[in-house]
Fold this sequence. Notes:
Layout lengths: L1 E6 L3 H13 L4 E6 L2 H10 L4 E4 L9 H10 L5 E5 L3 H11 L3 E4 L4 H12 L7 H12 L12 H11 L4 H8 L3 H15 L4 H10 L16
Parallel strand pairs: 1-2, 1-3, 3-4, 4-5
Helix pairs in contact: 3-4, 4-6, 7-9, 7-10, 8-9
Amino acid sequence: MQKLLVVDEQPVMRAGIEHAVQTAGLIVEVDGVGSAPEAITRLRTGTWDAAMIDIGLSDAGGISFLSRLVKTHPDLPVLVFTAMPESPYGLRALRTGAAGFLHKSASAQTLAEALSRVLAGRRYVSPLLAEQLADRMVNDSDRVPHELLTDREFEIFRLIALGNSVADIGETLSISPKTVHVHRSNILRKTGLADNRALTSYAFEHSLIPGRRSDDRGGSL
């Protein structure tokens, strides 16, 4: 029997995934954890055929967690199952090494289909994401500024836009405050944005963070 590790902070979501797998008749043993540290421990101590992760984990740094899994477990197929928008997170997840990307609004049937493909060693790409990939191949020179950021820069960009402090970001990503400042400088340079308020406004306009007025944020780095 194949084994799937589900990494999601919400117990109800983990239970729902297991129920969807059973209902679809997949012969898969599902084990769930609620945090990145728990996932890392399970991966070190057990053998898994695939992992399903939410890149919206509050303790994991989003895409950075995916990047870490891909590097430390290169033979482990990872299906991203998240509420983060398919654009731009889907393209970035695939570039980072995910075997597939699925939004949490998907039906149980689509979830089972995506998981089946990943467990079979294939990739799952939704019609919308396939269209984005094709468009990017044709119009690569038209990339918007945030697509020029590295995965680490992109994650720090998102955390800044969400109102996190330097200390919070450093703790989440296990880096020093000085390193956060260096990345922030690179982010501003690459995007051409002036400050944190502009970063937040840009992130909102491009659906990189949940809707919230940028002028509600008074903090600065």
